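Take a look at this chain, tokens included, and explain the fold to me:
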Amino acid sequence: MSIRRHLRSILASMALLPMLACFGVGGERVGNSSSVTIGGTGTGDVYIAGQGLNASSVPVAKIWKNGVAFWESDGTKSFYIRTIAVDGNDIYAAGEDSSGSTLIGTLWKNGTIIWQSDGTRSTSIYSISISGSDVYMAGQEMGITGFIGRVWKNGTSILQTPEVGISSIQSVVASGSDYYAAGIEGDQAKSWKNGVPTVLGAGFTFSTAQAIAVSGNSVYAAGYIQNPTQPKAALWVDGVNQWVSDSTNIEFGRALAVSGSDTYIAGEEFNGSHFMAKIWKNGTATLLSDGTSEARAYGIAVSGGDVYTVGEVNNVATLWKNGAATPLPNGTSATSIFVTAQ
């Protein structure tokens, strides 16, 4: 199988299954894969979304606050949470209900479901962003011959990709009256501003954008590309490719945070035996795991000089703060992080 087909099979297998998402508060709002840029002078509360087990060992969707179990679904349905955002006293989370044969996109506010897709097509929500009273969601629908990426505003679709290949919108961020999105259409990474597309993957045979962030007048996107025969983590700024990892191993960039002039990407690298959780700061890599067991990073946030990353190690939900790992109680995977400004 060619590397291109292999990448397509990876994305297809991940499509409509738990991935990631991000958001920001108090300064810039940033998107997906769990990326966060925090305004203010210090860190407030740390919210993490993911999956785990309840007291009866039943798989449930979970939210942790400051490392302690805060909320979980009741176990009667198979819910996944991919993304979390906090706006004032309100906590938003989104993902899907996979109880039936059709995945149902789901949005929670303070633990109560406030929106679901109609169930006619399998739908997953990967990212949410709040701007005033508006709630933006990004995700993916299964079509007849392929996949469709969408952005919804207050439950109404406002952006739809063509039904081609494994199209998906992985990340959305709202800034004032504008919204920005990132994902993949066919085999190419793309970003959108208010529905107008920009091709990011020109020159690569395969590319996908997994996260988007807005800082000042610049728009950042992170993901991975085929370079030349293996996937490599990549960064785009204002539509131009700025960086591609020079590692000789397979890598995936999944989450993005921007703090001042610094960019942070979270993801993983395959060492030939195991995936290793990894972050890049301005292109310089730091491993979060030792490569002796499976580990992945799905979300990242920067606040008060601290770098927070979430993911999993050997099916245990894990938070890394400045590289130091802490397992989350009764968690199997952590997919998104949101840190409030103090």
Observations:
- The first strand starts at residue 35 and ends at 37.
- Residues 3-14 form the longest helix (12 residues).
